[in-house]
Design brief:
alpha+beta, Nuclear Transport Factor 2, Chain: A, Lipocalin, 3 domains, five-stranded antiparallel β-sheet, 13 helices, 27% helix, transmembrane helix, membrane
Amino acid sequence: MKCKIFRDKLQEYIDRSLSSDMNKAMNNHLMECADCKKLYDEELEIEKLFKSALETDNINFNSSRQQVIKSIDKNLYGKSVIKKLKFTVIRNRAQVIAAGLILAVAATGTYAVFNIKSSNRYATNSKSEYKVSNKGSKLQSRYKTMQKETITTTDTKQKNTYTKVSLDNSIYDDQSQYAKLNLTDNAYVAMFRKGTVKKDTSDGTRWEKSPNGVLQFSLRGKGENGHEEGEGYLLFKNRENKMWKIYIADNKKQYSPLSVEWFDNSNVLATVGLGYGTVVVGGDLYMINVNDGKAVNVYNLYTSTNGKKQIARISKEDNTLKLKLREYTDDALDNHKEESIKLYFNESGADTTIKAKPQDAWQKSLDKLAEYVDDDNFNNISELFDTGADESGKQKILNDMSKAKKVTINKYIDVTPSVNLENLKDTYPYIRQYIVDMTADMESDGEIIKNGRNYLCVTLVSKDSSSIPLIYNIGGLSHN
């Protein structure tokens, strides 16, 4: 999108009157253009102050600045007067903001002055230093021609048919275009919960449909554009208009979803950070299941840097997530720089909301875990591990699996290009790392695997293209 088109459509974007496709294009342009992002922030500030200046405790002013200008009697004042009014508002931003603040304070009274949230201690004047990196190239096809091959496992005389894949490693070998995740089990995770809703009349963002159109979500509690201060929550509805919400329980940190995007038909991606303060524009990257509220922290930049690094905006395009990062460069949080990065997420699996894809040898090795648990075949589970696997981690998984009555793998998310596996490449030419969404029916909770939904980080390795991929490491990921 050209900057001129963005600026022409900016007021409609703020008013939420654009089509869904145009709204998404505007979102993407905001992530890529620092100048237009700055203009958008200024316009949004004017819009908020324009409204606050005309609100009192008993009267809510719902029209936008653009609607007010449009409502002026053109026959009485003429087009030139309206143009001058528009131009005056834009040209005299500082004066408009100052006047809006004075009017807002006068209207709300002294009570509001002494009712400021404690988290506003983070508010400060911020000088922006923008550094935007655009490294874009379309992903090449991952696989060459698939061939069928019969491979005999070492622990049994049974023959198991795998789909052998001749891998085109271009996307895996050249990983410089992708940022690196730090997948860990000790990141902070906000406690998301599912709640019932009969009716919700609060302000919120426009409804966003899931890829298959069955569900919709709206971010509530943070204004029409999702940028106001407050502890927001996600409101969902289905085709029958049944509604429910996903919210943060026991929210002592005053966290909130900030930027939200559909990942697939049953999960959303959300940046989660502090709901108050002008310095906080982003947070960590979460994947949240919309049906049960289970959430996993997949990119813990915000909590691991005490707020100095934040994921400000997210956008999904095919298998790539585009993230706009903000990094504060001083301890006072006065100055910051921004950059765009990409993460690789390629999803497949048995989840019924996902279009079925052919399984490859990598996924079949993961499926063997579930199959052997169901058959109580724990000797075979042990044989799924590579000889170089960490022995203590292997024993933890074997102990946990012995407590499992049934294991179901819902989906696999290949994140290989977005993790650092350089230390293994000399030994294992073929490596994959997956986030595995798995449901376990446990007799009792294990050390890594708990009863219910689990998120695991699994590394698979193979020394040549004709060998069965084996497990090198399994670890839990931080989830609620």
